[in-house]
Amino acid sequence: MNLLGPLFFLSLGLFFFFWIRRRTVRKDQSLLEMEIEEDLKEEFQIDPDSTNSDSNEGLLNWMEEEQMLDKIERKVSGRDE
């Protein structure tokens, strides 16, 4: 009977610890996603209100070309994955 009180408070403390930790991780993840999105907009000058897919298509093509160049360089240097 004497263990019931401390066990209850320990359980309650663990619950609040994990609840606060999960909330903090979600908040940090959300802030990080917003920061990454802002950095991409700033770096590639993407207008979020733009419905023109030409700029996005150009960005996508550039990224694909860079990936292919990296893959070719890895094959040439013998670091093929």
Description:
The chain has 81 residues and is mostly helical. The chain has 2 domains: 1-45; 51-81. 81% of the residues lie in helices and 0% in strands. The chain contains 2 helices and no strands. 0% of the residues are buried.
Spans where pLDDT lies below 50 across 5 or more residues:
none
Domain module tally: 2
Structural class: mainly alpha
The run of helices and strands is: HH
Shape: elongated
Write the layout of secondary structure elements.
Layout: H1 4-44, H2 53-77
In short:
This protein has 81 residues and is mostly helical.
What descriptive keywords fit this protein?
single chain, 81 residues, mainly alpha, 2 domains, 2 helices, 81% helix
